[in-house]
Amino acid sequence: MYIDKIRLRAAGLADAAEISKLSVSTFGTKDGTTPAIVAQTIAHWQEMKAPVVVARDSNGRFLGYALGAPNITNNFARINGQVAVLTHVAVVSEVRGGGVGTALVERAIKTLKMLGYSRVFAQIRGDLVSWYERLGWSVGPARQTRTWVEPYIPQDHEWHPEDFERGEFSPILLMGYLPQYPYLAEITIGPGTPLVESTFTAVPNGEESMQRAGDAIAREIARHPGVATQLPVALVELLSEKRQLPAAVRQLLRAAIGN
Questions:
Q1: C-alpha distances in Å from residue 188, one per residue of 2, 99, 108, 118
Q2: Which of 58, 185, 190, 234 could cross-link 137 (Cys pair, CB 3.0–4.6 Å)?
Q3: pLDDT tens digits for 15-42?
Q4: 7-204: which CATH architecture?
Q5: C-alpha dihedral, 40 to 187 to 75 to 124, nearest 10°
Q6: Cα(249)–Cα(216) distance, rounded to whole angstroms?
């Protein structure tokens, strides 16, 4: 298919069926998006901070789409957080290699920056590593994922509303692991930075990933005790009680908060 011009815009409800069809054909029924989910996201993308970008040519022919969304940890979407995820980028097969994917990613990143995100992650296949690097993303080793803690926002109180007062706790966030997308790509688009972050070897099991993320953050705080003064005390106390951590690490965490 010849492309005379790539036209990018925010997706409308009329685009939902084509987006969903391409999504399922590209990513499969497990990772693709249904028409209902696409329509829901399009209708509420501003409040969800989850932009959907569509590409068409000057004749209106559908070329592809990109979808961004806030990072989700334990089914908790941190809508006003620092990190977004580029969850889908798909281009119709006839025009792949013609610059559509690049244009979609660049437009999605521009919109995510406008929405206030500071970083964007993408879970990708090995054959896409060099392409993302050419677009300015950094890509870590296979199966290495990221965990971090951001400054407190009021939404964090939803994690433990009955256990802590507002401002006492911030969650440990992480990128989950999908075996079919073993590489984590990252690009910085804004000034916000996490209070503490680390990497760990990912596993498909969500509960074990959360455990490993907590261990990685605890060890990072132990290596840099001054970080603890920037974190909610309740979070550091919880980490200091992790029995699977070496006693020396738990002692350093308790000392960092004066316990």
A1: 34, 22, 13, 6
A2: 185
A3: 999 999 999 999 998 888 889 999 999 9
A4: 3-Layer(aba) Sandwich (3.40)
A5: 80
A6: 11
